[in-house]
Amino acid sequence: MEKKLRVGILGATGMVGQRFVTLMENHPWFQPVVLAASARSAGQTYEEAVGGRWKMETPMPEYVKNMQVLNIDEIDKIASMVDFVFCALNMPKDQIREVEERYAKAEVPVVSNNSAHRWTPDVPMVVPEINDSHFDVIPFQRKRLGTARGFIAVKPNCSIQSYAPILSAWKKFEPTEAVVSTYQAISGAGKTFKEWPEMMGNIIPFISGEEEKSEQEPLRLWGSIQNGEIVKSDCMKISAQCIRVPVLNGHTATVSLNFRQNPSMEELVEAAESFRGYPQEHSLPSAPKQFIQYLREDDRPQVSKDVNFENGMGISFGRLRKDTIFDWKFVGLSHNTLRGAAGGAVLSAETLVSKGYITAK
Hints:
The active site is at residues 158, 251. By secondary structure, the protein is α/β, with parallel strands linked by helices.
């Protein structure tokens, strides 16, 4: 790319916003030119606005420290400065929906980490390796919004990344039902152990709204575009339980499932490890070379050893074995703030650029 696209980050001071900041450092296609947050942070430098709340393992990049934070409500000003924005706002869903639509109607493409628009019928919710074709709904959305450039695209919930890609690789074997338990890191709640010490040595068997997301969002990934809207698939049923565990980064899932076909273990492993999508075929900057890896050791995947596979953008699974009630069972693992959040949104933005939906003004 001859000239980098100008990027804004909405909600830049929060945990996911901070992850976007780190991912944009030296990105070959994108140049962050706007950091925006609430009115209480506006006017401060980014370093001042974040203060002691920097949550990343690596230091704050030098390039952002002295950038002035803008108010997210300065939409016309921000729209004049950027080619598109990432959205990582931490606000009530109705407010996020309103803000994202206002940016889209100001002719700014919005690539969102938020859940507010995941079930808006003409908003694509995409894991680029799985359903990049859903971006084809964007012209219908633009027609509804009355825009030429602006639109909203979102990524799915972080919890499903540890198993939905594997199930996607096995679609040809026709999975029919699955029972899933997710063991979710505290960074998925935007927390560190310093901020949430009561999670040390603790498990909480409830995460608001997560079980419905874990059961329904994979079906939308596997859906189809009909009459300008994305209609979810009815190809299988998923039952989920979601548990918060004392891990900083990394969502683990245990899955038991049935198939219409009768695949062997070798067929399942080969289908998963050879699974590729648009990002691999087009060598996108953030794409993992290998999307899914199978680990043959009995005690893998482990968060401490495997969560950063392919720079946190790959999926690991192991313990594939016959089940006494279902056909097969396995354990999956994904990095929830990289593949599951900001990194997945960056890969979606790269896909949208490659497909021509995001362009320079």
